[in-house]
Amino acid sequence: MSDYTAYKADYDRDGFVLVRNFLPADELKDLTAQVDRYVREVVPTLPDQAAFYQDKDRPETLKQLQRMGDYDSFFSEYRDQPRWREPRR
């Protein structure tokens, strides 16, 4: 069974997929730091349709971010990397 088939079965069963080692550890660490920066510096400036909270009056209840690349150059460049845009072979 291919990885895709296993992932598809997991997704169909659970509604999500866990892909271990999807990113190298150093890249994941940097990406996590960038998300932290984005939440700290960018999220407070976003329009309502770009950041969703359980309770808008409590920033710690942030639950979803939309279109991060539209509001931040790091995420725009990250999103536009060829590895995300080109079909996998």
What is the gist of this entry?
The protein has 89 residues and is mainly alpha-helical. The protein has 5 helices and 2 strands, in the order H-H-E-E-H-H-H. Strand 1 and strand 2 (62-65) form a beta hairpin.
Detailed description of the structure:
By secondary structure, this protein is mostly helical. It has one domain. It is built from five helices and two strands. It has helices at residues 3-14, 25-42, 68-71, 73-79, 82-85; strands at residues 51-53, 62-65. A two-stranded antiparallel ribbon has the order 1-2. The chain is globular, with a radius of gyration of 16 Å. 2% of the residues are buried.
Strand content: 5-15%
Query: Please, how many domains?
Result: 1
User: Kindly, what is the distance between the CA atoms of the first and last residues, rounded to a whole number of angstroms?
Assistant: 16 Å
Structural class: mainly alpha
Task: Return the string of H and E elements.
Answer: HHEEHHH
**Helical proportion?**
40-55%
Query: What is the arithmetic mean of pLDDT?
Result: 92
Global shape: globular
Low-confidence stretches: none
Cα radius of gyration in angstroms: 16 Å
If strands are numbered along the chain, what order do they take across the biggest sheet?
1-2
